[in-house]
Amino acid sequence: MFTPAPRADFPILGRTGRGGYPLVYLDSGATSQQPFAVIDAVREAVEDHNGAVKRGSHLLAEEATIAFESAREDVARFVGAAADEIVWTSGSTQSLNLIAYVLSNVSLGRGESVPPVPGVDMDRFRLGPGDVVVTTRAEHHANLIPWQELCLRTGATLRWLDLDREGRIDLSTLDVIDEHTKVVAFTHVSNVSGAISPVSEIVSAAHAVGALAVLDACQSVPHMPVDFHALDVDFAAFSGHKMLAPTGIGALYGKRDLLRALPPYQFGGSMIELVTMEKTTYADPPARFEAGTMPVAQAIGMGAAARYLQAIGMDTIAAYEANLTKILVNGVAEIPGVHVLGPAHEANRTGTVAFSVDGVHPHDVGQYLDSKGIAVRVGHHCAQPIHRHFGVFASTRASLGPYNTEDEVRFFIDTLREVRPYFGVED
Ligand code: PMP
């Protein structure tokens, strides 16, 4: 059966699920599966080229450094960035915390610890009482709590864009972005509703008042072509393990001049230029933000994943997943007593589909599906405010990857249809 990412590339897809059923993996929004191209790249890095990057004069260190830096180039190319605009992190969570923490360091007066960059006004990064950080009610906690904390540390105020009935960002609330706004942090695609955000409208509103636009691209990068230069965002976060790469690796994108103007937030090896007992000068980005030993093999794996996805073509993946999304979301929406949390149709959304089932707890829904070999996610998906918006505390979520088939989606829908009768819930 055709899938843009051939199923034979993914060894795990050959195993069975609970009860000996074929595994139907519909949890790629939480973590995606890895193809041989990634597994082999990681194994080769460990087996043949393991050495401390940037620190040795010996052959292994040199080979590891070359592989590590060329992975950065591959990832940069994949998201429309330059290599020196990509900072390795452990994932989106660290990327978003990094940028929020660095802004608090500037606000505390530590912006002077790096040389000024012509054309960059450090006031853009400085927050205090009267300033505002804007986020949205659709955010994953990783793109909400760091901003709450930044506001608590600096005295700034947190405000947010609200959502419409479908869970989309409601552009009629865009007027919370005003001349007091310093940061607008928002998700490209919600990990609950699957809705694709109106990026250009929000970025334009942010830039019109001189605010920084920070994009959580964790749920978009694996599913559609993403070009950070074209989107004109100032910073963006994404995770390796959602784009067929290993866990423990991700990236922060930042516009070159902005990264160069910002001070570090963690200190130690590999991020310095000169150190005396009295003082330290810091390396240029991205090294400035990569203190200590990075997850080298995982970064190499993420480079391999970027190459693998690019070879298939993100347009191809997006078109394929759009068709599956249509079957998935319409199939779920048609089941009596089942409610899609998000757009209940395929337009302008991805194949991440959360839903509630009248009379059945999400954990029971998940367990029933699991008993038939179907892997979905249950809970609040680290996004409690958007669940509250939909009037529930938790949900079940099916999410697609480029290796899912139409048959799998249909089997999932048929099995979901059995859930309410199985638990004896009458209409
Ligand atoms: N943002 C969104 C929209 C997410 O879906 C996730 C992961 N569920 C994160 C941020 C956090 O990513 P990670 O756990 O890889 O740091």
Would you mind describing this structure in some detail?
50% of the residues are buried. It is globular, with a radius of gyration of 22 Å. The strands form four sheets. It has a seven-stranded mixed β-sheet, sandwiched between helices. Strands 11-12-15-14 form a four-stranded antiparallel β-sheet, with helices on one face. The chain has a two-stranded parallel ribbon with strand order 1-13. It has twelve helices and 15 strands. By secondary structure, the chain is of the alpha/beta class. It folds into two domains: 7-30 and 313-422, Alpha-Beta Complex (Aspartate Aminotransferase, domain 1); 42-311, Type I PLP-dependent aspartate aminotransferase-like (Major domain) (Aspartate Aminotransferase, domain 2). The longest helix has 21 residues, at 314-334. The chain has helices spanning 36-48, 59-78, 92-107, 145-154, 199-208, 228-231, 256-261, 296-312, 314-334, 362-370, 384-389, 406-422; strands at residues 24-25, 86-89, 132-136, 157-161, 181-187, 212-216, 235-239, 250-254, 272-275, 280-282, 338-340, 352-357, 374-375, 377-379, 395-399. Strand 5, helix 5 (199-208) and strand 6 (212-216) form a beta-alpha-beta unit. The structure holds 4'-deoxy-4'-aminopyridoxal-5'-phosphate (PMP). Residues 91-93, 140, 142-143, 187, 191, 216, 218-219, 239, 241, 250, 382 line the site of 4'-deoxy-4'-aminopyridoxal-5'-phosphate (PMP).
